[in-house]
Amino acid sequence: MNLLEVKDLSVTFDTDERTVGVLDNVCIDVKPGETLGIVGESGCGKSVTSLSIMRLLPQPAGKITNGSVFFDGQDLLSLSKEDMRTIRGRKIAMIFQEPMTALNPVQRVGVQMMESLKLHRSDMSKEEQRQECEKLLDRVGIPEPRLRLTEYPHQLSGGMRQRVMIAMALLHVPDILIADEPTTALDVTIQAQILELIAELQKQSGMSVIFITHDLAVIAEISDRVVVMYAGRVVEQAKIKDLFENPRHPYTRGLLGSIPTLDGTPKTPLSTIPGMVPSFADMPSGCRFRNRCDYAQERCKTEVPALKETGDSHAVACHYWQHVAQSTST
Ligand code: SF4
Question: Does the CB atom of residue 305 touch ligand 1 within 6 A?
């Protein structure tokens, strides 16, 4: 039984010149209590997928043109704005890449946190609310939490603002936490601390987590399953161990070639996959990875590879995945 089911989701964006397709029939599901990693280079549609789930696509440019998003049996795309607001934050919370999108610059941190807490915990006294906020700030590694509650977001460093936002998203312990590159700007120690906190809260509460990142090493650390996205499509989906041991899509192979090795060899950039992600305004026909793919054949120019189950809950969108899998294991 899935807690979240995204089916055949397609999204377009209006630009000055034309309408471009950004997501193309994306399918993702999340089970209760699991951590799903979504990975891919920037511009692959990871963030647009999460904004679509939250119904927070930039308006009026972004439009969902096809598909459905079911959460706990409810179709989120047909809910009223009012009903969606009650789901957002309480049931599905999101940590953004850029903290200032979630923080109000003219309100003290404590006021913002306590207002959010008050909405769902009216049984708490003001002092209890303050203590709860302090406790959470402390858990995300913010020193002198009582003092921070009296400050405005601009008085905090970028890393601290990021942690305040993470603390705010965790105030209500949602059913699903969507974390969009939440630790990218933080140093490694704080990053490890935040990942640990999320894992601990998940263990206590049973919440599900969707963790979006370009960093497969982070995904490997925290995810149960992984979805690999490329140019607005899901190209591979598998359990974490299976993906690392038996990658079946040439793009996944390329990503795996760019993570650090256990002997400490420095991380090489993702651009080690030759070429660039195509722009949404100029997508190649057929398989969107074909201009960067060593395995491409004539057929890849015209036929879109469908995402197909290949056994053991491992799905891949490549006409020649068997050939890729064979060459990976040799
Ligand atoms: Fe490469 Fe063709 Fe597979 Fe696309 S479908 S990944 S171009 S082999």
Answer: yes
- Supply 112's token pair: 């913002």
User: Which pairing describes strands 208-213 and 176-180: parallel, antiparallel, or unpaired?
Assistant: parallel
Could you tell me the pTM of the whole model?
Answer: 0.88
Task: Dump pLDDT digits (tens) for 140-159.
Answer: 889 999 999 999 999 998 87
Asked whether the bond before 60 is cis by omega within 30 degrees of 0, the reply is: yes
Q: pLDDT digits over 198-251, tens only?
A: 888 888 889 999 999 888 888 888 899 999 999 999 999 999 999 999 999 999
Identify the residue whose tokens are 């979006």: 212
The answer to whether 194 and 163 are in contact (CB under 8 A) is: yes
**Is the beta carbon of 296 within 6 A of some atom in ligand 1?**
yes
Instruction: Give the residue among 3, 1, 44, 315 at the shortest CA–CA distance from 178.
Output: 3
Burial 8-36 (b: 16+ CB within 10 A, else e): ebbbbbeeeeeebbbbbbbbbbbeeebbb
